[in-house]
From TrEMBL:
The lineage of its organism: Bacteria, Bacillati, Actinomycetota, Actinomycetes, Pseudonocardiales. Residues 10-70 form the HTH tetR-type domain. This is AcrR family transcriptional regulator. Keywords: DNA-binding, Transcription, Transcription regulation. It comes from Amycolatopsis thermophila. Residues 33-52 bind DNA.
Length: 196
């Protein structure tokens, strides 16, 4: 059976994404030439340019795919919580767990701000994670668990604090200790926002 053009295009994009994601996670964006990605994907350099424009465009697609996955993991963790207050802590733990994986640390925390620029990195982070954070905070306000506050602003600040914690952990000499300290401080801060 012959594949359609769209099926071939999807297959090519998937091969490029998989190869790039693995290589970027292993060695970082700067250490991976575009020629190596296309060789590993088994496609031509022209296919890379056709589907993603350039190596940076492919990196952005890989980063966005990773962001979608991490957001889904965090959202799933909140559904396992017995209550919303626990859900906030479960979400924090799930996010920090994800950020400890080599691919997340290298691609999302180390390379993305440098490759895409801080503003673009923050926009993509906000597009995927901010909606989830604001939704959880809205629920907390609706249930009377959270002190009334401008939820959109609070959501941005929570997301910024959690991202900063992940960056601190990624760059720490002792990541395990940094993770423990950051998780403790963030939990205290988040629980302090709740109505007693």
């Amino acid at each position: 059976m012959r594949r359609t053009q769209e099926e071939r295009s999807q297959s090519t994009r998937a091969a490029l994404m998989a190869a790039a994601r693995e290589l970027f996670a292993e060695r970082g964006y700067q250490a991976v030439p575009a020629d190596e990605i296309v060789r590993a994907a088994g496609v031509t350099r022209g296919a890379l340019y056709h589907h993603y424009g350039d190596k940076q465009g492919l990196f952005r697609a890989v980063f966005e795919e990773l962001e979608v996955e991490v957001t889904a993991e965090v959202e799933a963790a909140t559904k396992d919580a017995p209550d919303l207050a626990s859900g906030l802590l479960f979400a924090l733990k799930a996010f920090l767990d994800a950020c400890e994986r080599d691919e997340c640390r290298q691609i999302a925390l180390i390379d993305a701000p440098a490759v895409l620029g801080w503003t673009t990195w923050r926009e993509i982070e906000a597009e995927h994670g901010l909606g989830l954070v604001v939704g959880l905070l809205d629920q907390a306000v609706g249930q009377g668990l959270l002190k009334p506050a401008p939820v959109a602003v609070l959501g941005q600040l929570v997301l910024s604090a959690v991202n900063e914690a992940a960056l601190m952990i990624a760059h720490a000499d002792n990541p395990a200790q940094a993770r423990s300290d950051a998780e403790q401080v963030l939990a205290i801060w988040l629980m302090g926002l709740l109505v007693e």
